[in-house]
Amino acid sequence: MVNQKIAIQLLCESGDAEKFITLCENEGLKHDSSSSFGLIQTEFNGQVRLELRKLSDPKLGAVFVDFISGKMAHRRKFGGGRGEAIAKAVGIKKDYLPNVIDATAGLGRDAFVLAAIGCQIKLVERHPVVRLLLQDGLQRAYADQEIGEMMKKNMILLPINHITELDPIANACDVVYLDPMYPHKIKSALVKKEMQLFQQLIGSDADADNFLEPALKLAQKRVIVKRPDYAPFIAKKAPHFSRETKNHRFDVYLTSL
Ligand SMILES: C[S@@+](CC[C@H](N)C(=O)[O-])C[C@H]1O[C@@H](n2cnc3c(N)ncnc32)[C@H](O)[C@@H]1O
């Protein structure tokens, strides 16, 4: 859990500055003009949105959450849908759409793939900057004419940091999804610039092995762990089976045997 205040430049280029600062402070951020990272409230295409930027390295671009247009919209409209490896890993069938807790929500991209298919997903994210970016993307998506209703029904960010804060009985779900940060191979030129920035801010989730047990307690059917293809099993525990993609594996731990 991130307990201490995170120092970052809080910059407002558009919208209500006071509200923005209060929002950030409530999430545990504090303005630090010497930080090389900035969380910026800005405007894009007539909408106010939050962006993370590395101010000392603008070439890295901005990280923001956009479920309405761009890559996520393209994937929703033209992606594999139920044929996607993640959909198969969580066990989606013709008449079965599991409800899922995404315990390491990040920017919500994997969760969105499942939500667009029709799964109901509760999101948990512990890093305050990431949580703010995600909440911002969700708010804009909720207000969208095309996907708003689906998003309000299927994707909700829980006001907690970690799934251990959830009572396993009251919050039982079919599937818990885990995708902790994993160190990239040194020569990974393929890591996109925006993700490099994300990784520099968050680092790797060195405590990831501890996530498996609470996830297994919560999930009625299965826990899915997304890993790079070169990474060992989480907590050194072999899954019941894995689904492989080009660069990743989805390790599947069944809980209802
Ligand atoms: C690789 S990213 C997830 C990316 C996400 N699957 C997506 O599609 O955007 C991992 C995220 O999990 C978060 N995280 C790591 N450990 C966590 C924990 N124990 N509880 C909540 N969030 C956690 C990190 O802060 C980071 O944002």
From TrEMBL:
GO molecular function per UniProt:
methyltransferase activity
Which keywords does the record carry? Answer: Cytoplasm, Methyltransferase, rRNA processing, S-adenosyl-L-methionine, Transferase
Top EC class for this record: transferase
Does Transport count among this protein's keywords?
no
Function according to Swiss-Prot or TrEMBL: Specifically methylates the guanosine in position 1516 of 16S rRNA.
Instruction: Write out the similarity annotation.
Output: Belongs to the methyltransferase superfamily. RsmJ family.
- Name of this chain's protein: Ribosomal RNA small subunit methyltransferase J
